Amino acid sequence: MSAIETIKYPDIRNYIGGTFVEHGSGRYLDVFNPAEGNVISRVPLSAASDVDQAVEAAKKAFPGWSQTPIKERVQVFYRFKALLERDIDSLARLVTEENGKIDSEARAEVLKSAELCEFACSLPQITAGEVLEVSRGVECRVEHFPVGIVASITPFNFPNMVPNWTIPNAIALGNCMILKPSELVPLSAGRIAELLREAGLPDGVLNIVHGGQETVEAICDHPGIEGISFVGSTKVAKIVYRRGTSNFKRVLALGGAKNHLIVMPDAEPEMTSTNVVASMSGCAGQRCMAASVMMAVGNSDHIIERMVNIVKSMVPGTHIGPVISAEAKARIESYITEAEKMGATILVDGRGYKVKGKENGYYVGPTLIDHVTPDMRIAQEEVFGPVMVIIRAKDVAEAVGVQQKSRYGNAASVFTESGGVARYVMENASALAALAIRTCGGRSTFKEFPLERLYRDSRCGSLMLPWTAEICLERIGRESLYEPDEKDD
User: Does pLDDT of 479 surpass 50?
Assistant: First the structure.
């Protein structure tokens, strides 16, 4: 019996025009179960001709779909939400198989997809136009139209949720879509397509093209695609942004992150230690909002000691899943080793962890590293694993100063009982979102402050026009959408 005959799932196929079809290149990549380290399927490496085929199917569907009233379009997503909830068990199992999440995390991901559908169903109320009476018999009208055909290139860390960041909104707004999932986690995308078809989505409105670099380049270059969203590494985000905008497409490219948690000595110890560990270890640290740097201000040893005890009690395979690949495991562990050689103190070491019965799985145990200095690579670069580094600071100003020097700008947080300190961090943190967490009498109050003042290496471009707050709505000449390429730091 051949290796292909023994793997669990048949070869994955593209989804074009409402049908699963073969691809043109004849080339495949193996798909692995990260918990077991075994091959579970093969994903096609689609050629530019496959992207052409998907765009043609979308072009055929676009006139009818875009002219369908938005209140009718969102009915698909009312039904799709119900189907996600109906099939949550099987959808969560699929996420666990291809991504490695533990069951509770996988189920939470599917529920978040359902929540995203709820927002899409509210779009008829959000996207209403305007009529402005300028003078007698003269009025100005604001009307919204679909962009056309858009593409979404999604990462491995949330195979069900991140596609649903874009699918419900873009399609409910009358666009047709090309989805290019990560080649590491291609299985969930097929189930999403099947459920949308069951929900009544017309053929050709959603098309899925699997593949790698060649497929992404074809999407960036295709003249029939008007806009692109991307989530992944900063390196590739910049490439997609530059290549897409050079072809006069709208591009929103989300890259990496290095999120700092500032912990003040007055923070409530139990709540703070529990939440800091949860932030760094959830989804094996493979999420853009994961905490990766803790700025320990003043004497915070009592909180760090609690964190050590919590981390030591966590069991990989039960409380935390594997990382995505053998290459990711080796890369994460190399960061830990380098930090140790440079003088950092390993409080809890997750290197070389083996789960009984799953010895070939890609597990990295949760890791705490103290006395890291800001000049170390592990303090500056995105590790994307269950690793928390602790940098000591004498006061909140020094802690914020370290955060401000990060080349990333995704998020920052502070744990404190002082409203003044919380306000200082909120006003000075250089991040797209600052989260002030006040710990009062053992309870926490969360307040997010969106700070849209810089993107750094966490975000390039926008799908929004600069004069509107609506997403993917106005359709105007491409020449009007040009933005200069972002320069390297």
Answer: no
Per-residue pLDDT averaged across 285-307, rounded?
96
Active site residue: 288, 440, 460, 472, which one? 288
- Alpha-carbon distance 447 to 423, whole Å? 11
Residues 153 and 294 in one domain: no
Q: Kindly give the pairing relationship between strand 28-33 and strand 38-44.
A: antiparallel
Answer whether residue 265 is part of any domain. yes
Residues 440 and 469 in one domain: no
Q: Does some domain include residue 295?
A: yes
* CATH code for position 392: 3.40.309.10
Is 464 a residue whose pLDDT tops 60? Answer: no
Please count the structural domains in the chain: 2
**Do 55 and 140 belong to one domain?**
yes
Number of C-beta neighbours around residue 31 at 10 A: 22
Residue 221 has pLDDT above 80, yes or no: yes
Q: Could you identify the residue written with the tokens 């495991």? A: 329
Q: Are residues 333 and 396 in the same domain?
A: yes
Q: What is the mean pLDDT of the chain?
A: 89
pLDDT digits (tens, 9 = 90+) for 258-271: 999 999 999 999 99
Tell me the pLDDT tens digit for each residue of 241-263: 999 999 999 999 999 999 999 99
CB of 304 closer than 8 Å to CB of 390: yes
- Is residue 486 in a domain? no
DSSP conformation letters of 394-427: SSHHHHHHHHHT-SB-SEEEEEES-HHHHHHHHH
In a domain, 488, yes or no: no
3-class state of residue 279 by DSSP: helix
Question: Residue 283 catalytic?
Answer: no
The Cα–Cα gap between 242 and 251 comes to 9
- Residue-wise pLDDT tens digits, 124-175: 999 888 888 889 989 998 888 999 999 999 999 999 999 999 999 999 999 9
- Residue 174, domain CATH: 3.40.605.10
Q: Which amino acid is at 157?
A: N
Range(s) of the domain holding residue 282: 259-450
